[in-house]
């Protein structure tokens, strides 16, 4: 789903875009990763990626991006820890 943040907050910069991607959906995964690579090649500033899940999801998303040769140096990652154990977040001192 591709949504302009202006739809949510009309006073924001119109160039800010928000994209929700379900990488677990194998039908849209390749297209979504290709879209991300395209955005990364066009953007000068890093793209923010929020991963919702636990340790396995974080590991899986990063590995999928590496497998598809996404430039991780242009990505900033955030995590919403909604996994079972959330050991990754606990180990780096993030509240869960």
**Count of β-strands:** 4
* Rounded average pLDDT: 75
Largest sheet: 2 strands, antiparallel
Low-confidence stretches: 1-6
**Principal-axis shape:** globular
Q: Helix/strand-derived class? A: alpha+beta
SSE string, helix = H, strand = E?
EHEHEHEH
Instruction: Give the C-alpha Rg.
Output: 14 Å
C-alpha termini separation: 27 Å
Q: Portion of residues in helices? A: 40-55%
Strand proportion, as a percent range, falls in 15-25%
Tally of contiguous helical segments:
4
- How many domains? The number is 1
The largest sheet has its strands arranged as 1-2
Describe this structure in words.
It is a single chain. By secondary structure, this protein is of the alpha+beta class. It has one domain (20-91). 41% of the residues lie in helices and 21% in strands. The chain contains four helices and four strands, in the order βαβαβαβα. The protein has helices spanning 5-8, 26-42, 55-67, 87-91, and strands spanning 2-4, 17-19, 47-53, 75-81. Strands 1-2 form a two-stranded antiparallel sheet. Strands 3-4 form a two-stranded parallel sheet. It starts with a strand and ends in a 5-residue tail after the last helix. Residues 1-6 have low confidence and may be disordered.
